[in-house]
TrEMBL record, chain A:
Keywords: Cell membrane, Membrane, Transmembrane, Transmembrane helix
The protein's name in its UniProt record: FtsX-like permease family protein
Localisation: Cell membrane
MacB-like periplasmic core domain mapped to chain residues: 18-194
Pfam families assigned: FtsX, MacB_PCD
Primary subcellular site in the record, as a coarse category: membrane
Amino acid sequence: MNVFKLSFKNLFARPMRSVLTVTMLTMGVALASLLILVGNALDDSFKKNIRGIDMVVGAKGSPLQLILSAIYQIDSPTGNISLAEARKLAKNPQIKETIELSFGDSYKGRRIVGTSQKYVALYDGSMADGILWEKPFEAVVGAQVSQEFDLKTGDEFYSAHGVDGMGHDHEEHPFTVVGVLNTSGSVLDKLILTAPESIWEVHADADHDSSATPEITAMLVKFRSKMGIMTLPRVVNQQTSMQAALPAIEVNRLFELFGVAISTLQIVALVIMLLGAVSVFVSMVNALKDRAFEMALMRSMGASRSQIFGMILLEALMLGIIGTVLGLILSHIGIAFLNTYANEQFGINVSIWALDPLEWLLITATIVLCIFAALLPSITTIKMDVSKILSRYEN
Amino acid sequence: MISFPDFEISKNDRLLITGNSGTGKTTLLHLLSGLLMMQKGEIIISGSNLSALSQQKLDKFRGRNIGLVFQQPKFISSINVLENIKVAQLFGFGKVNTQDATSLLNELGIGDKAQKSTNELSGGERQRLAIARALAAKPTLVLADEPTSSLDDDNAEMVYELLHQEAVKNGATLIVVSHDQRLKSKFENMVAL
């Protein structure tokens, strides 16, 4: 028997009261931790995919749509641009490197992107099996696609028109899988990559004029120096029929949109946490009222004022720790469930077992909050008149 | 303002302090145990002057030297019978001795209730536990406040005998504060308030 054990037993002698307090703390912590993890994951995933891309050039339309479609492959493309015009721009001395992307077809909802091998290098992709594509109709599949549809090296498949998997099949040209990529945590995981000529040939044969000049959907651009940001987008937007969009700016704009939702949820989490703290306060005040006599008894047995004070703080601390631990477990279980969905849709994957530095801050803040909530009730025990309480209960 | 007469009691002796309601019996007991501070005068127990001790030292002194038995046997409800004894040991001399606690319960005939909740005890068992708790930290002085007043003759006799017998066995001085007439025949030393 020690003061720690006594506090523990006191808490569980009145489970309903503790359960209410712990539930509020748990919910507050879980929501806050979930916001931290999801926020970080979005941030991470969005930043990871724009790494090394300074500008995207595509057909005129919404710049956000261009970025979402060309970089993240989650929106429909804005249209096509002429390959000749794109290549002319690529010769600009301020441009260091370009990657041409042709997309618009899919296999069972997974996008087929016609591009150069530089696209794989951009995201540090590596081969799990086979080799990169060399000729048209050779395809390399992302880790997730390979897993999902059990596509292995040597398999054949037909593409379908459109990026949503609802279009008609292009049955004349089967694709052959020549390689499978390792998981990279980037957009590569959910794509099927091939040579751009595959896309052109499918469409030239199917329903387009075979004499048409080759088109691409978008071009990723890396500048020689950051100075390019100042001039090139304006040049493209004003002097060509193409559109230039800066991923950093569009992603920030997107985050501002998310931001409103995230701040609202943050306020909700904060309010729940504060309610939890109020609940700790009320719980401690009630405990003192119910247990004033027991505390006076302990004083009569020789317990010092600081021991009683410490015991009450310890109870609050335990509530705080239990609430925090349960909250973190809950949010990490939530993340485990969200992972499946988020990974499929956005290629987002959050580690379930690791604690984010912000979560450590959350743990500290919650526990400090609980201690503060219990401070006032604890202080009243110091001033308690033991003799008066004992004689009052005697009669 | 209540004044009390001077009195002395030697080690291992027994003293009954009598008086009607309102004469300050409980107040005197709380003064003797250092739960209350007096305005004038002094209380010296085993050479320590209580009025000269700081609050912290007083708490420690009380824990080490004084065992209190109240009229209503009340306990800490969240812990069991044995743990109530252990808590008294803990606050009394800072460490717990399970063997001592168990043998104390056995001595008072409630050894078989050690793991029970204090709420499950009968009235007589609660009285026994209250006495056991007062003795848990091996005090030199046992102070009992109306320990028999609300009991029938048989139980009053039992409680007195236990207090007497345990105080002797543990080498403790016993002071009983009571208006219970039945106790008068039991004590040689008496102070009337």
